[in-house]
C-alpha cells in the first residue's frame, strides 16, 4: 500500500506572472525558440534551463518552444518574452501582448516511445497518442528522431503500419468531396524528371473524373510536382479557392501544405529528411494517410524499380506492394499498384523550369517532347480511367491517348493554370539559369546506365529547386549511341559557386556509363 | 567504365569573403548557433538555409554551428557573423576579428551511420570515424540521436562495444601517471545517496595507492560526486593543479569535464539524457573509455541490483558484468566487478549538501553517520586495496576499516579538500534550503520498500542539484518500524514553486511502502 500524506512545512503556490510578448527577428526554421533574459523573474522562479521546452500562452492560444537565455536587453528585456519568427507567427499575437510562460508538460506518449525504442510492438492507442503529440509539436527533435529510427530499425509489422496510418490520417483536416470516385495517383519517388502528375491530372479531369491533386515540394529531390507547377501557376491556394477550382474544372495541381492534411507527417519529415530515412512502414503511412485525409477513394500507386531507384529489385517491390495493399484495404481505399521502370530519370529535364518545359511539350504534342514521359503518363492515366465503372478493363490507355492527342488535355491544363493564377511561360524559350556547362562522353559506345542519385545530386548542387531555372538537361538516354566528345547532359546554374559544386560532383562521377550495346540491362516491369 | 569529362560553360570560383566576428549574448546550451543577417552577401552567395550546419574559421581555429538567420541589425549587421555564447568561447576569438563562414562538409562517417540505422554490424574503422565526427561536433542533434537509438535497439554485439570503447578512449586527452597501479572505482549509477567515492578515495590514498578520481556532475540524478564534493571544495581544477595535487596527496576528487577525457561521450550525453537511454553497450563504452583515458590500470565497478535500480535482476547483472569484463580485458584494464544491494538509497541525504553531511559524518566517525554508507564504502575500498600486491586477499576490508576508524581517512580527505580549495562546511549545521515539509507514514508497520526513482525525482523537483541545499533527507530505511504519522523523510527547497512540485509528486506517490515485517524482500547480493 502506498498510503502516506504530505504535510506542508512552509510554502505557497507560485502565481503566474505575465510577461510582455516581443517578436525577435531570428529565423530558426521550423523550430520554435523562446528568448528570456537571464534576470527575468519568471526564469529564476521557475528554474528553467536553456534548451528546456516551455509552453507559451497568449490570447487563448498556446505554443511550445525551446528556451534560449540571453543577457542582451536589445534582444529581450527582463519583463519580456521573445519569440523567433515562426513561433511568433504561430502564437498569432502582437508585440506587447501579455504572455504567460511555464515549463511544458512532458508529452504523455513518452512511455510508449520508450517501449518502441526498446523494440516492443505498440497498440493502436499508443500510435494515436504518439502521433497526436507529434502533431502538437510536443516532441523535441531528439524524441522525433528516436521515434523515426526506432520504427525504422525494428521494422513495424503490418498491423502497426495500419495503426500509424490511421493515427496520422486522423490528426489533420479531412476533406470530403461528396462524390465517388475521387481519384489520385502517387509515385513513391526517387526518379528525377518523372513529372507524370502534371499530365495525368488534366487527362483524367478532361474525362470528367474528380482528381483534386495536392503535391509536395521537393524534400531531397531537385523538384517536386508543386515546385514544377509553380513555374506555370500559383500553387499556394486557400482551401475555398481550391474547392471552387476543383468543382469547376474537376481537377487541380496545388501544393498540399496549406491543406494541413497530415500535420504529423510534416513534423516527421523535418527529421526523416536530414537522415534520408524512408522505411517501408513510414512511406506507406505517410502516403496513404495523406490520400485518405485528402478525401481520395481510388489511388494508382507507382513503384519504380531499378538499381538506383528507391526499390532495387522485383521481390522488394512486391513486398512493398503487399504492404500498401494491406493498409489501403483496412482504410477502405481502392488501390491499384503499378511497378514501373526506374532504371533512369524520366523525361529530359531535371529541375522545375526544365521539367515544366517537358510537360508542356508533351501536352502540346511537340515533336521534342520526351517519349518516355508521354508513354508513362498515358499508362498511369489509363489505369486511373479504368476506375470509372463505365470504362472497360484494358481500354484506359487508348482513351487517355485520345484525350492527349486531341488537345483536350492541353485545354484542361490551361484551364487549371488560369484558375490557379497563370504565370508567363513559353516552352520554346524556357527561362533557364544563366550559367551552364556540358558533360561529355569520354569514349564511344552506348549509354548503359544513368544513376538517378547522381543526376539528382548534380541538379541540386546546381541550385534546383530553389533556383527554378537550375538543373540538368539530359541529352542522351539509355540505349542511345554516343561518340567520344558528344554531350551527355547540360547543367544550368545561376551562381558561380553552385556551378562549381555541380562541376566537381560531375567530375567525380558523371552518373553515366558507356559500354557495348549488349550491356544495356533488360528489366522486366509489370507494365 | 565511368569515363566522362566536364568542360566549363561560364563560371568562376567564389572567393571567401571575411565577415566581422560578434558575440551574441544568447545561451543556447551545448548547441553552437551562428547568426547571419538575411542581407549578408555571404549568406546570399552561398545559398545557406536556416538550420544548415556551417563551418566558422578564425585565427586558425574552426568550429561547426547551426545557422539562424536574422533581419535585426541589433543582433548582427550585414557584415557580421554572430556566435552564441558557447560557440564564441569555443572559437576563442575576440569581437571584431575577421571570420570566414562556409557550408560545413557533411560528416564523412554518415554512410556508416546509415548502415547502423539499417541494423548492420560496424567495424572498428566505422566506429573510429563516427566517434571522431561526434567529438568534432560534426553530427547534428538528429544524427546523434539516430546513432544512439540505432545502437540501443539493435544491441551492439560485444566486439562492437569494444570497438566503440576503443574509439571513444582515443579521441580525447589520455593521462599517463607513470606508475602502476592507478586505481579507481565506479558505480553504474541509479541509486540516490550512494556517495562512496568520497570515502573510498581518502581511504585508498591514505594507504598510499594512486587514486586520481575524476567524477561527473549530476545528469539525471539529484547529485553527482562532483556536485557533492563542490560543497566542500573546488572541483574545477586546471590539469596542472590536478597533477600536482595527485602527486602530493595520492588522490583527488575533481570534476572530469575540464580534463576532456572523452569528448565524444560528453556530446552523446546531450541526447542520451533527454531520452533516458542507457543501454548496456553505451554504458560500458562510456565508463571504460573514460577510465582508460584517465590513465586507470585497475578498476572496481559497482553494479547495484534492485527492483528500482538500473539493473533489476541477478541474471541481468551477470550479463552486464560479463560485457564489462570482456571489454576491460581487451583494453588491458584490470577489473573487479561487485554486485551490490540496490533496493533503496544509500545513506540518508539525497542532494549535494545533505550527501556531503553524510560523508563527513562517516569520516568523523560521528554516531549519526549512516551505517549502510560506511559499510558499503569500506567494502569497496577493501577490494581496491587488494589490488595492492602486498595486501592478502580478504584483508582489504579490515585495512580499510582501520584507516577510517583511526582518523587517517579524515586527515587525507581534509588534505585533499584544502589542496583543491576548501569551502566552509560544518556537518553539524549544514546549510539546507530554507523551506521544507515532511512526508508521514499513513499507517503503522515496517518499511518494506523505498523507490529509488521516486525519491530521486522528488529531490530533483525540490531543486537538487542546482540548489545545493535542496533535496530529501531520509528518516527511515527499509526494515524499520514506523507508527502512523511518523515522518518518513523531509524535503528541503529554496523556491516555493520547487517545494510545490516536490509536494505534488510526493502526494501522488511517496515512494515508500509500509507492510508487515515478513514482507521486506530478501535479496541475495554478492558482497
Structure summary:
Two copies of one chain form a homodimer. Chain A contains 18 helices and 20 strands.
Can you describe this structure?
The structure is a homodimer of 527-residue chains. In chain A, α7 (197-207) packs across α16 and α11 (280-293) packs across α12 (314-330). Chain A has 527 residues and is α/β, with parallel strands linked by helices. In chain A, the strands form five sheets. Chain A has a six-stranded mixed β-barrel with strand order 2-7-4-6-5-8. A four-stranded antiparallel beta sheet of chain A has the order 14-17-19-15. In chain A, 39% of the residues lie in helices and 20% in strands. In chain A, 57% of the residues are buried. Chain A has four domains: 19-103, Barwin-like endoglucanases; 110-171, Transferase, Pyrimidine Nucleoside Phosphorylase, Chain C (Transferase, Pyrimidine Nucleoside Phosphorylase, Chain A, domain 3, Up-down Bundle), CATH 1.20.970.10; 183-258 and 273-420, Pyrimidine Nucleoside Phosphorylase, Chain A, domain 2 (3-Layer(aba) Sandwich); 435-519, Pyrimidine nucleoside phosphorylase-like, C-terminal domain (Aldehyde Oxidoreductase, domain 3, Alpha-Beta Complex), CATH 3.90.1170. Chain A contains 18 helices and 20 strands. The N and C termini of chain A lie far apart (67 Å). In chain A, β5 (53-58) and β6 (61-70) form a beta hairpin. Chains A and B meet through β1, β3, β6, α5 and α10 of A and β1, β3, β6, α5 and α10 of B. β15 (435-441) of chain A pairs antiparallel with β1 of chain B, so a sheet runs across the interface.
Amino acid at each position: 500500500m502506498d498510503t502516506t500524506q504530505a504535510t506542508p512545512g512552509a510554502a505557497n503556490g507560485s502565481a503566474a506572472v505575465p510577461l510582455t510578448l516581443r517578436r525577435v527577428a531570428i529565423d530558426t526554421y521550423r523550430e520554435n525558440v523562446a528568448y528570456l533574459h537571464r534576470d527575468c523573474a519568471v526564469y529564476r522562479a521557475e528554474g528553467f534551463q536553456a534548451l528546456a521546452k516551455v509552453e507559451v500562452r497568449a490570447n487563448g492560444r498556446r505554443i511550445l518552444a525551446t528556451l534560449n537565455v540571453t543577457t542582451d536587453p536589445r534582444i529581450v528585456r527582463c519583463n519580456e518574452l521573445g519569440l523567433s519568427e515562426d513561433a511568433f507567427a504561430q502564437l498569432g499575437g502582437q508585440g506587447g501582448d501579455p504572455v504567460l510562460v511555464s515549463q511544458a508538460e512532458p508529452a504523455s506518449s513518452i512511455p510508449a516511445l520508450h517501449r518502441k525504442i526498446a523494440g516492443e510492438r505498440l497498440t493502436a492507442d499508443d500510435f494515436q497518442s504518439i502521433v497526436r503529440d507529434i502533431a502538437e509539436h510536443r516532441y523535441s527533435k531528439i524524441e522525433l528522431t528516436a521515434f523515426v529510427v526506432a520504427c525504422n530499425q525494428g521494422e513495424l509489422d503490418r498491423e502497426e503500419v495500419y495503426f500509424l496510418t490511421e493515427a496520422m490520417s486522423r490528426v489533420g483536416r479531412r476533406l470530403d468531396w461528396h462524390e465517388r470516385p475521387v481519384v489520385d495517383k502517387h509515385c513513391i519517388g526517387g526518379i528525377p524528371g518523372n513529372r507524370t502528375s502534371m499530365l495525368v491530372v488534366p487527362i483524367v479531369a478532361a474525362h470528367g473524373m474528380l482528381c483534386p491533386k495536392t503535391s509536395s515540394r521537393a524534400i531531397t529531390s531537385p523538384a517536386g510536382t508543386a515546385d514544377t507547377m509553380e513555374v506555370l501557376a500559383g500553387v499556394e491556394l486557400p482551401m475555398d479557392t481550391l474547392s471552387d477550382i476543383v468543382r469547376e474544372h474537376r481537377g487541380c495541381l496545388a501544393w498540399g501544405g496549406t491543406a494541413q492534411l497530415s500535420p504529423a507527417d510534416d513534423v516527421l519529415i523535418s527529421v526523416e529528411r536530414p537522415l534520408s530515412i524512408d522505411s517501408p512502414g513510414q512511406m506507406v503511412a505517410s502516403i496513404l494517410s495523406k490520400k485518405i485525409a485528402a478525401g481520395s477513394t481510388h489511388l494508382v500507386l507507382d513503384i519504380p524499380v531499378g538499381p538506383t531507384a528507391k526499390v532495387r529489385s522485383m521481390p522488394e517491390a512486391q513486398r512493398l506492394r503487399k504492404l500498401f495493399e494491406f493498409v489501403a484495404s483496412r482504410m477502405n481505399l481502392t488501390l491499384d499498384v503499378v511497378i514501373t521502370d526506374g532504371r533512369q530519370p524520366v523525361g529530359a529535364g531535371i529541375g522545375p523550369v526544365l521539367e515544366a518545359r517537358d510537360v508542356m511539350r508533351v501536352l502540346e504534342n511537340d515533336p521534342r517532347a520526351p517519349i518516355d514521359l508521354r508513354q508513362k503518363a498515358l499508362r498511369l492515366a489509363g489505369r486511373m480511367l479504368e476506375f470509372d465503372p463505365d470504362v472497360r478493363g484494358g481500354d484506359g490507355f487508348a482513351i487517355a491517348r485520345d484525350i492527349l492527342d486531341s488537345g483536350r488535355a492541353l485545354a484542361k491544363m490551361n484551364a487549371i493554370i488560369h484558375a490557379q493564377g497563370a504565370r508567363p511561360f513559353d516552352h520554346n524559350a524556357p527561362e533557364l539559369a544563366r550559367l551552364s556547362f556540358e558533360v561529355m562522353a569520354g569514349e564511344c559506345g552506348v549509354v548503359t546506365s544513368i544513376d538517378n542519385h547522381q543526376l539528382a545530386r548534380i541538379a541540386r548542387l546546381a541550385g534546383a529547386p530553389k533556383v527554378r531555372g537550375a538543373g540538368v538537361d539530359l541529352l542522351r538516354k539509355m540505349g542511345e549511341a554516343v561518340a567520344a566528345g558528344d554531350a551527355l547532359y547540360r547543367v544550368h546554374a545561376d551562381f558561380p559557386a553552385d556551378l562549381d559544386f555541380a562541376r566537381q560532383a560531375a567530375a567525380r562521377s558523371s552518373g553515366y556509363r558507356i559500354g557495348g550495346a549488349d550491356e544495356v540491362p533488360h528489366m522486366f516491369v509489370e507494365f
